[in-house]
Structures are given as structure tokens and as C-alpha cells.
Design brief:
Order of helices and strands: EHEEHEHEHEEHEEEHEEHEHH
Mean pLDDT: 96
Shape: globular
Low-confidence stretches: none
Helix content: 25-40%
Length: 269
Amino acid sequence: MNLLVVGASGLLGAEVCRQAVAAGHRVVGTYHSTAVAVPGVAPLRLDVTDRAAVRALLTEVRPDAVVATPYRYDDWAVTADGAAHIACAAAEVGARLVHLSSDALHAGRPTPYLDDDVPTPLHPYGAAKAAAETAVRAVDPGAVLVRTSLIVGKGSKQIQLGRDALAGRAVLFTDEARCPVHVADLAAAVLELVPSDLAGPLNVAGPEAVSRAELGLLVARHEGLDPAGLKTATIAEAGLHRPAEVRLDSSRAAGLLRTRLRGITEVLA
């Protein structure tokens, strides 16, 4: 298979590349500023906000499938417009599209979110991810939209945030719940979805919900750090307007995929 990974220098994109190369696929990976450093991957620079450039690259590569992971937290053009540009170009060349979405498009509630729950974003990043999904579904109804949560693993920003909070350099919220997933599990799930005919949104996250603060304590245990220094607060105490409890129900994905999505307690055992 000829696979194109957009965002191959990111944590997830790089892991998808590694697993795809190991499986014997021909892999091209794009990057914007940090070069792709995965052996066996052909690196190409791409600005996803440049629609013509995206179209030209996909016309040149002619991939069988595209795994799209474009995002920049504070940049609508990358997160939303970039996703639309990729979807349009993938559709033109007839490539299967797996688009990476996020639990950030939900507002938070006590009950878990199902795969097809409508986005209710609270902040600009969530709105951008919701807009990206809308664009992808409009352009390519056959695309699968992988809604995931906090991604952990070597080099994870989430793990580093836990270290920073344990050192008093950051704050973790006790009332902000998510369903962390290991990057290797998520990448394997994504590659399973490439040859499938699944379409629309699919929750692919860990089966275990923990608060940010609880995640920090798990990091402390895993790395042998003193948990006493963990700096915590509530979202209200911090004066922020952001989603609190966002639990993704990934039971459908767990039943469809061979890949086992491990809980965070097992991952950080």
C-alpha cells in the first residue's frame, strides 16, 4: 500500500509511519517545520493551509490512503482549513481518508459520549476540530473520523505536563476527566481502519477515564517521582472556561478492532 501520513513529525504521525513501514507499506510523510525522522519514510514538506500545495503533493504521490493528523492548537487555518484541503485532494485522487479528530469538540457532561454525538465545542480549538469534521464529511462521506483523547507515550506532551505539575511548574485539574490512549495502540487502530469500509465518527480512546490530576499521580508512580509536590486546582478555581468531564465511549471500536486499547493504569503500571 502507498500511504501518505500528513503530520508525520508529530507524536502520532511518527508512530503511524513506524508501524506502517514495519508492515511493509510504502510511506510518505509530510512535515511543516520539524523534519520527519522515521527510517524508511520519504519526507516531504507541506503547508496544509496552502490548498494548491496540498493538491499538488497528493497528485504527485497518488496515495492509496491518507492518514491526516493536521492540527495546531491556536491556528484555525491549520486545524480546520488544512483538514478540508486534505479531504478535497484525497477525494480527487481517490484515496481512502482516515482523519484524526479529538474529544476537544465536546463541551463535557457526566455521561460518556458515543461515536455519533454531535459536537458542542466550548473553545476555539474545539470549534476548529468540529469544523474540520464537518468539512471532511461533506467532501468525503466515506472517510472515517477518529475521535481520540489524550495521547500518551514516549515524548508525549501529556506525560511532560505531569512531570511539570509534580515539580510545581504547572497545574493539573482535579475535575477535568479524559480517556488517555497510548500512541502505539492508537496508531495500530488507525492502520486497521485504513483498509476497512467504516465511515463517519468513531471513538478510539482508552477505556479508563481519569482526571488530569490522577494522570499526574500515575506519572509519579511510573517514574518514581514524589507525588507530594503535585500542583492541582479545579477549573473554576483557575477561572477558565473549558470542558470538564469528557469521556469517550470506545466500546464500538473495541469490538471492531483487533488492537486492544489499554487503560492508562495498565499503560503506566
